[in-house]
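INFO batch 0412 | record 1 of 1 | parsing
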Amino acid sequence: MNHPSVDLLNQAVADELQAVHQYMYFHFHLDDQGFGPLSQLFKRTAIVEMGHVETLADRILFLKGDVNMAAAGPVAAITDPAEMLSKAIEMERQSASDYNKSAQQCGASADAATKQLFEALVGDEEAHQDAFEKQLDNINRFGLSYLALQSFGAPSGAPPAAK
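INFO prediction complete | emitting C-alpha cells
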C-alpha cells in the first residue's frame, strides 16, 4: 500500500512536468519571435520546475512509491506573448493553491517532511507568478515594443542581465 502522500506527490510531478513542457514551448516560440529576455525567463523557469520534479521524485522514492512521469495535460498552443504570460500566471496560481492544500493534507497525516516540501514549492510558484505578472503588466503598459526593445543591444546567446 502506498504512503498517503505518494498520490499527492505524483500529482505534483504531473503538474510540474506539464509546466516544464508548456514553458519550453513558450521559450521556443518567444525565441523564434525575437523576444530573447522573455524567452529566457520561460527557459529558466522550466529548469526550476525540472528541479521540482527531481525533488518530488526523491521524496516519492523515499516513501517507497513509484514516480509517475506523465504530464498532467497537453501543451497549449499559445504563441502570443501576453497570452503566454496569462496562461503561466494561471498555472502558477493553481499550483500554489494545490500545494497549499497538499501541505495541509500531509500535516494532517503526520508527514512533516512532505508538508515542508510542499510549503517550499508554494514559495517558488508564487515567485514565478510574480515574475510573470511583472512582465504582463509591462506589456499591458508599454505594448509588445517593451519586449522587442529589451532585445536590442544584447549579444546573441548572452544571458539576460541579473535583476
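INFO post-check: Residues 89 and 130 are 8 Å apart (CA to CA).
INFO record closed
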